[in-house]
């Protein structure tokens, strides 16, 4: 089994910055991709940023130029640096990892989510 542990959410004023972290722990053989999604109240979950291993980084159009996703492969950790935050960035942010596990093959895992609130 693999656990994703997120941290770094909180309350910030518009224009401010936050950094989210997500560490993957457990029976990991390799990680294919680590990604961030978000879900705002009353809306569907959407991809914010994706960081595949050996592939191009992808960003949602709404965050391009303001958010940066990065990975520390040695620590199985992904970060999301969020700058120039807007009230519409308010959401629960979820870490997602596409993992080759030791026992169960390739599995998609999700964190429990961390709340980001941007005040105007």
Mean pLDDT: 96
What's the β-strand tally?
A: 11
What is the overall shape?
elongated
Q: What string gives the helices and strands in order? A: EEEEEEEEEEE
> Helix/strand-derived class?
mainly beta
Roughly what percent helix? under 10%
Alpha-carbon distance between the two ends: 40 Å
What does this structure look like?
The chain has 120 residues and is an all-beta fold. Helices cover 0% and strands 62% of the residues. It is built from no helices and eleven strands. The strands form two sheets. Strands 2, 4, 5, 6, 9, 10 and 11 form a seven-stranded mixed sheet that branches. Strands 1-3-8-7 form a four-stranded antiparallel sheet, with no helix packed on it.
Q: Which helices and strands, and how do they pair?
A:
Elements: E1 2-7, E2 10-13, E3 18-26, E4 28-39, E5 46-52, E6 58-59, E7 67-72, E8 77-82, E9 91-101, E10 105-110, E11 114-119
Parallel strand pairs: 2-11
Antiparallel strand pairs: 1-3, 3-8, 4-5, 4-9, 5-6, 7-8, 9-10, 9-11
């Amino acid at each position: 089994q693999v656990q994703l542990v997120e941290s770094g959410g909180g309350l910030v004023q518009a224009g401010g910055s936050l950094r989210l972290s997500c560490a993957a722990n457990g029976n990991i053989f390799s990680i294919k991709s680590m990604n961030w999604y978000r879900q705002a109240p009353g809306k569907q979950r959407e991809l914010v940023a994706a960081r595949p291993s050996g592939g191009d980084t992808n960003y949602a159009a709404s965050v391009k130029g303001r958010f940066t996703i990065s990975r520390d492969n040695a620590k199985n950790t992904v970060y999301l640096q969020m700058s120039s935050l807007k009230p519409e960035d308010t959401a629960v942010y979820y870490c997602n990892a596409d993992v080759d596990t030791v026992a169960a093959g390739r599995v998609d895992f999700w964190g429990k989510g961390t709340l980001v609130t941007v005040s105007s």
